Amino acid sequence: MKSLLIALAGLFLGLCTSAHAAGTWVATPYAPAKVVFEFYLDHPQKIGSALYWVRSLMNPLLEAPYNYSPEDLSLVVVIHGNEIVTVAKRNEATYQDAVDRMRYYAGLGVKFKVCGQAAADFGYKVEDFQDFIEVVPNAITELAHWQQQGYALIVPKVMEKTIDIESIR
Questions:
Q1: pLDDT of residue 169
Q2: Which of 64, 77, 67 is nearest to 36 (CA)?
């Protein structure tokens, strides 16, 4: 009986060990992306973090094993929160890094659209915006339009970082 218990314990330990095996890399067969991003941020400085969501979608699709070209992707960013000030020409020096990144993405085919109603609330006119910006009548209507065209909606959640990774790793 004792040897049976030892054998069962060994079997159990073997099963437990296999349950702790390493993870597995899986290359999901992604299709070219059709995505509309909604930027509605409470602080203009958060646009940098929101733009990382665009990068996080693009980069894996442009690299192996997918190797899509920028022309294969269809990405739209709809801006209608406090980050609207980042794309006003008069604020370019303040938000230069974000403007440069958006201009780079626009060069890769990402469309940047600003809500005309929000622009008016901020006192902006079409000519006040960077040359890669398209002003649309309304952000909510624009978001609905792209979703009706089959685009997935992604809304970046940009939180305040209150704890460093090293302390919780």
A1: 84
A2: 77
Q: How many residues does the chain have?
A: 169
pLDDT higher than threshold 50 for residue 135: yes
pLDDT, position 167:
86
pTM of the model: 0.84
d(Cα 144, Cα 36) in Å, to the nearest integer? 10
Which residue type occupies 47? Answer: I
* All structural domains of the chain: 34-158 (3.40.1260.10)
Q: Are 64 and 25 in contact (CB under 8 A)?
A: no
